[in-house]
Amino acid sequence: MGMMQGKVALVTGAGRGVGRGIALALAKAGAAVVVNDLGVSLTGDESAENESPAQQVVAEIVAMGGQAVANHDSVADWAGACAMVKAGVDNFGRIDAVVNNAGNLRDVLFHKMSPEDFDAVLAVHLKGSFNTSRAAAPFFKEQGSGAFVHMTSTSGLIGNLGQANYAAAKMGIVGLSKSIAIDMQRFSIRSNAVAPFAWTRMVSSIPNETPEQQKRVEGLKKLVAEKIAPFVVALCSDAGAKVTGQIFGVRNNEIYLFSQPRPIRTAHTAEGWTPETVAERVFDQFANDFYPLQKSGDVFTWDPV
């Protein structure tokens, strides 16, 4: 009996990379899986593959004795999100976990980023996470249980070059996850965010022209996509029933619990502030505690283990 025996999970963007690893691991743990994947390119264009990535993963699950069904709807579409949740209920009788993994990239420096670049990424990552979660919420509420796992990123938590759209979406997901956790705690429904470190096609577009960039890419290639899955399975299982509202990271064999914003310094004046007194007193007082403009690679500098 696996940790997910008798449960049903939806994994979005499950045709490749991290999502595929999670779908397979959930199936190995006993879950019936709705394998959602549009089967499109990294930027969202139609794929030229003959068999859909989702169907390929379903075939793998069935071959190992599991249960799965493919879904090709878009998480950015409300009706599509409802359809993929309904696929779980119609085929397997219930829905117990939603893993919001679907994503796209349109990396470009902020001063060159078009509104279309921004909207396209938020539509999939942030709106998509809302759509699938909201579609599953009534089923979770009725049965008095359920787990949401949303994929965030250190691009939002820390920062990265040329990813204003992606970073905004991934930080938005953190706020969405926390709000879901607060609103649905009374129904024994939990929600957590996970930042996955993995070499997938989502990060294969990173520039590798300079020696510094090439060194970073070689380090990223050591990050195995399948390493994310065990933690996600544990979060979705009954063993994770008391874990909610948190931000985690998984980097090969390392698991992180991230901090959440809280005040670290205060300044007070009995007379009230003016722009001049703020400039004279507050900026210098806080300066030692300002966060530097670091990127994700500046913080995670050691080799994956």
Automatic annotation (TrEMBL):
PROSITE patterns found in the cross-reference section: ADH_SHORT
Pfam family name, one: adh_short
Entries under InterPro entries matching the protein: KR_dom, NAD(P)-bd_dom_sf, Peroxisomal_Beta-Oxidation, Sc_DH/Rdtase_CS, SDR_fam
Domain Ketoreductase residues, every copy: 7-202
Gene3D superfamilies: NAD(P)-binding Rossmann-like Domain
Organism superkingdom: Bacteria
UniProt record similarity statement: Belongs to the short-chain dehydrogenases/reductases (SDR) family.
Protein name as it appears in the record: 3-hydroxyacyl-CoA dehydrogenase
